[in-house]
Automatic annotation (TrEMBL):
Keyword rRNA-binding: no
Family indicated by similarity: Belongs to the GHMP kinase family.
SUPFAM superfamilies, per database record: GHMP Kinase, C-terminal domain, Ribosomal protein S5 domain 2-like
Designated name of the protein: D-glycero-alpha-D-manno-heptose 7-phosphate kinase
PANTHER family, per database record: L-FUCOSE KINASE (PTHR32463)
Positions of the GHMP kinase N-terminal domain: 78-162
InterPro entries, sorted: GHMP_Kinase-Related, GHMP_kinase_C_dom, GHMP_kinase_C_sf, GHMP_kinase_N_dom, HddA/FKP, Heptose_7-P_kinase, Ribosomal_Su5_D2-typ_SF
Enzyme class: transferase
Keywords: ATP-binding, Kinase, Nucleotide-binding, Transferase
Gene that this sequence comes from: hddA
One example of a Gene Ontology biological process annotation: GDP-L-fucose salvage
Species the sequence originates in: Neomoorella glycerini
Residue ranges occupied by any GHMP kinase C-terminal domain in the UniProt entry: 235-314
EC number(s) on file: 2.7.1.168
């Protein structure tokens, strides 16, 4: 029997950065985000005499006999940390992992992978855990166990799924699912473009720079964070009222404030693509994730979207098809594909 799990990736519309400590501890943070139909997958085949982990994306395999003996050496450390935090020390299995987007793409793929893995382990060991428990544990794996710089929104977005307004006050996280009208969701999806700009970025370096600017009292950085939080509330209101042109304009306003946090967030290539998109009719947009590269999200009136897409492709950008996903983490069991200890079918 194979235990499978998948957790959706996310697009962050507003407030990203206000979920990164110490800002939420001192001022409170808020983000608006939604999950999309791109996923991180974890597959567990229980049994054997060791833990054997295969990353299908990196064509990498690690093996060890006990989670206590797995050293963090840069090779699939997220998996080792998840197994250690979940206290998988006397159970063995073969684990297969893969994702629809690489780390550094800006879609929260690393956090989604940890959420998927924790979900699969929970299913395997029959652990009673809520979506809040899973998200909090995923945060612990990334930010505490492995000390990877970053915020708190990605883990909760992947665990809960759908459109969420997530508030952070100190160490307390409140996920507010939004009841967005279906015609508003369809119209928003129709008017958004997801563009891959290239340049997988090292988000930890950008985040370290952002946090350093905040800690040293950089006035522009602090004011940028305050504005990003305010824009998240305004964008939530625009979304719930179906005022999508306002939503697009707020994306632009948020992107201008995001760039105030660190001079590493954008570069001349990204700025050039964005300016060209605006010239051809986009109302606004933003880089997803910490910045520096990866995916650019753009809001375009439907009758100008094709012109914006063509302009971006001429500049080397790649338009990516996608849809919104309302479901969060999912786990299930399958008896397909088990033969000689390998998976022959990854169908879901």
């Amino acid at each position: 029997m194979i235990i499978r799990a998948k957790a959706p990736l996310r697009v962050s519309f507003a407030g990203g950065g206000t979920d990164i400590p110490p800002y939420p501890q001192e001022h409170g943070g808020a983000v608006l985000c939604s999950t999309i139909n791109k996923y991180a997958y974890a597959n567990i085949i229980p049994g054997g005499r060791e833990i054997e982990v295969h990353s299908l994306d990196y064509d990498m395999t690690i093996k060890y006999t006990n989670s206590d003996t797995a050293l963090y050496d840069g090779k699939l450390d997220l998996v080792k940390a998840a197994l250690r935090v979940m206290e998988v020390s006397d159970s063995y299995a073969t684990v297969y992992l893969h994702s629809d987007a690489p780390p550094g793409s800006g879609l929260g793929s690393s956090s989604s992978m940890v959420v998927a893995l924790i979900g699969a382990i929970k299913h395997w060991l029959q652990r009673p855990m809520t979506s809040y428990d899973i998200a909090a544990l995923a945060y612990r794996v990334e930010r505490i166990e492995l000390a990877i710089a970053g915020g708190m929104q990605d883990q909760y977005a992947a665990a809960f799924g759908g459109f969420n307004f997530i508030e952070f006050q100190g160490d307390t996280v409140v996920v507010n699912p939004l009841r967005v009208r279906s015609d508003t969701i369809n119209e928003l999806e129709y008017n958004l473009l997801l563009c891959y700009t290239g340049g997988i970025r090292l988000s930890a370096h950008i985040i370290d720079d952002q946090v350093q600017n905040y800690r040293t009292g950089h006035v522009d950085s602090l004011e940028g964070l305050h504005q990003l939080k305010m824009i998240a509330y305004e964008m939530k209101k625009a979304l719930l009222l179906g005022r999508l042109d306002d939503f697009g304009a707020l994306l632009h306003e948020g992107w201008q404030n995001k760039k105030r946090l660190s001079n590493r967030i954008s570069n001349s290539h990204i700025d050039g693509i964005y300016e060209e998109a605006l010239r051809y009719g986009a109302l606004g947009g933003k880089l997803l994730g910490a910045g520096g590269g990866g995916y650019l999200l753009l809001y375009c009136p439907y009758n100008k979207k094709h012109r914006v897409a063509a302009a971006i492709e001429r500049m080397g950008g790649q338009i990516t098809p996608w849809n919104f996903e309302n479901r969060g983490l999912q786990t299930w069991e399958s008896d397909r594909g088990v033969m000689s200890g390998t998976i022959h079918s990854m169908a879901v």
